[in-house]
Amino acid sequence: MSTTSTATATAAAQHTMEQPTSVTVVAHEGLGPAPETAQTKPHHVLNADGSVQKFRNPHSSFVDGLGPAGSLGPLGFFKVMGTFIRYRFQGKLDTPDTTPPTVTVRTPTFLPTRYPDNDPTKNHPLRATWLGHACYYIEFPTGLRVLFDPVFEDRCSPMSFLGPKRFTPAPCVLADLPAVDAVVISHSHYDHLSGPSVQTIRQHHPRAHFFVGLGLADWFKNAGIKEVTELDWWQDAEATVTLGPVGGGSAAKTSTSSSARPSSVASAAPANVPAPLKALISCLPSQHTSARSPFDRDHTLWCSWAVSSGGRSVYFGGDTGYRAVDQDQEEIEASVKDASDLAAVHAADDAVRAQRPGCPDFAHIGALRGPFDVGLLPIGAYKPRTLFSGMHADPVDAVDIFKDTKCRRAMGIHWGTWALTTEPVMEPPQKLKEALRRRGLPETGVFDVCEIGESREFGE
Ligand SMILES: [Zn+2]
């Protein structure tokens, strides 16, 4: 089946699904528990007048492998480029082979209605569909539809003709998604936030509400989007999605503003108008950086997120490191007598990891906000380790994050789409199995990867 024919079929189905007439968001300080260490906001870098100048990773688990780019301002961009050129000459930056076959891409299928059997009280699992790289589409059994980090362009770059190009196609187009109530963005890097994708979502889902880290709301407002809420780490928002009548009706036709259907009138609404959907959306820490130009490094906050609705929950790791290490895999392998002795290599690797602390935020997230039905956790873009370990988890880091955050199950993201770093493109899932074994977990059924476009169910 070609993507085009399915696109037509699902686009037709879109008109039969209840579309939101409004998404009301109330953000609170202190809605959920936060660790005491977070009260002083150690990730804020302040101006002399007390306003926030930019953000930083507050823990010693972060070392900037690309050099002190942030402290050098725009000059830092050229320093990063210099590091890349030096590594390229040293042969440490080989471009990985992306010749097919790599990851299988299938046309996704979505539920035809928000309530599969018309009984929202039943204890259904949530449904999660991988749309490539960090993008996931979540169908909650309450009826809520959430999209994480949508980027559907060929290149993740400020320019359409330059920058990393997809080696696996997008499994569908954004118009195929039957409904989008909330879009959650981890940070400003181009492989997670795309101007054209955001505008396409607006076109098809004009009521969709965007959730972003501190400092990033202006980017949306400058793009003409008012439906955006920015949050700091450990802040939460309660979202209420009011729906149009069962059986369709476009958002524009049903209501022009949220005041047209106050919640107090919900009980008096016609029988075919479903009850509003509720969700708790929580902004949580991650260990990363941000930038969309040489001049805005770390000016907006990077985050992980938790979304729960009707007792089902998702933890979205976004893009994060766990602990910075100062040795590359090749050096570790060279340090053992027999590099084919995997146990010896793993012991040497664990010794290198043990020298550095892991990011403590993940254990706080697990203890205070977990457990989660499913974690969407990054497993790719990790080599050379000395450059990227501070900001990108490798599969062992990802399994440590999985355990710390108390996810019951997880799916690997941030791989299989753009070759951003030097590891072979099919290495992350292999290393993930190895990492699960090393941490005493089963190789399958707990923390898996899937095909692009594939859906899995969680919380059953
Ligand atoms: Zn990033």
Automatic annotation (TrEMBL):
Lineage: superkingdom: Eukaryota
Stretches the record annotates as Disordered: 1-21, 98-119, 245-267
Domain Metallo-beta-lactamase: 145-345, 363-415
InterPro entries hit by this protein: Metallo-B-lactamas, RibonucZ/Hydroxyglut_hydro
Compositionally biased tracts (Low complexity): 1-13, 98-114, 251-267
Any Pfam family: Lactamase_B_2
Name listed for the protein in its UniProt record: Metallo-beta-lactamase domain-containing protein
Species of origin: Sporothrix stenoceras
Lineage: Eukaryota, Fungi, Dikarya, Ascomycota, Pezizomycotina
